[in-house]
Amino acid sequence: MKDIMPLSEMPTYRGRREAPIDFDRFWQQQLADLPKSFGYTLAEKNFGTGDIGCYNLKFDGTNNGKVYARCVFPKNSKNFPVIFRFHGYMGQVPDWSALFSYVAMGYGVVAMDVRGQSGQSIDHGTFNGNTVKGHIVRGMIDGPDSLFYKDIYLDVYTLIEIVAGLPQTDENRFYSYGESQGGALSLIAAALNSRIKRCVTIYPFLSDFKRVLELGNTSEAYDELFRYFKFHDPFHESEEKILSTLDYIDIKNFAHLIKCPVKFVTCLDDVVCYPSTQYAIYNRIDAKKEHFLLPEYGHDSINVHLNDYVMNWLMDTNIKVSY
Questions:
Q1: Which helix (H) or strand (E) holds 173?
Q2: How far apart are CA 13 and CA 5, in angstroms?
Q3: Are 26 and 144 in contact (CB under 8 A)?
Q4: Three-class SS state of 122
Q5: 266 strand-pairing partners
Q6: Block means of pLDDT (10 residues each) for the chain, length 323 residues?
């Protein structure tokens, strides 16, 4: 089912719920509680790739997580910009070769595996309640400090800090980019870490959970919420408590923290991350921003022209799109 909200209403829609009163303080404290310095390992892979350096980056995350990222850097270069590339829900970092195009332009790229999904990052956390399916529900019955995605967001912040400490990178030219869950994490990177100077987000996930419930969005990405209520609380007696907890990881509630320019892509046929839930984010961003609408696309892989646009936005290239 398509989003039932008329497109004419979406430019003023800001979501069904407001951020908790202590939202900013909560996240300031989460960041303050992180270590003052981060231990990590950075191991080069000998792939015979000449001037392209490939590295495995590993570090300890919060709640006993073990986080893995791939770094592809131009060898023998100094002060190069870095793009942080985030993957979609249940996915993993791209193949090494898929990251090489960034280096050809003089950029480094860092791609993090979200713990507990398909890649090499490891989730060692323990959670009460229903964890049969999905990551949104993990920890939600115990309150915001226990949320699984809280730890993922802190992984994103930590990753950026570690890369900023590498002597060859230019911490004043860090950019974030992703689609779906990756689009959400791209926004989180910009919201929580001021080192991010440009952000590209494509149909971001994890927004406006009350609206998701209203629309009956039982797509793979959100089905876990409906399973929770169906099997654990069919009368929705705990709905307010649950939503009050999820408010702390709702992407729209981070939008006001973003200070860098944002390019935002929404597909109007999206039945996974409904357009209204994306507008709820976009309409709360106070920084310089542009919204690009794709009327014929849903939650699809967009292989026509979009990669050229993204390169232009992130790398100041001037690729001409031909029609």
A1: strand 169-179
A2: 10
A3: yes
A4: strand
A5: 293
A6: 92 97 98 93 93 96 94 94 95 90 92 89 75 81 94 98 96 97 98 98 98 88 90 95 97 98 97 97 98 95 89 90 68
This prediction's pTM:
0.96
- Could you give the CA distance from residue 83 to residue 145 in angstroms, rounded to a whole number? 29
Closest among 205, 233, 231 to 220, alpha carbons compared = 205
What is d(CA 40, CA 31) in angstroms, rounded to the nearest whole number? 18
The two tokens of residue 90 are 């249940």
Tokens of 165: 């400490």
What is the phi-psi region of residue 208: left when phi exceeds 0, alpha when psi lies from -120 to 50, beta otherwise?
left
Token pair in block for residue 32: 């303050």
The label of the residue with tokens 């406006």 reads 208
Strand bridging mode 80-86 / 52-60 = unpaired
Find all residues with CB under 8 Å of 149, minimum gap 6, and list them.
Answer: 135, 136, 138, 206, 249
